[in-house]
Amino acid sequence: MSDQSGGGSGGLDLPTWFHGVMARQHAEALLNQHGGKMGLFLVRESPRDPGYVLSMCFRSMKIHYQIKYDRDAQGRYVCSTGHFSSPRSFPAIACLSRQYHN
Fold it and tell me: What is the CATH number of the domain that holds 70?
């Protein structure tokens, strides 16, 4: 659950914050298992809706934001949260994750 790379399966070097297909409840349990500290996050694939989700600890809550791939934004990933005045776009999910890690 950081921006450090970890060993993935199949010889892929996946970042430790990426957890593949995961339900919201499992993401919240995993965040709690790692202390539930403010700013702790993971990125997962939604089992219900196509696409990625940013799941994070904010104060005493677990919040979940959809990450959309926006072809109109020159192929960038857009995360619309209440923490930004307007939706922010990133060239890659790794760039988005750094925003929350720092």
Answer: 3.30.505.10
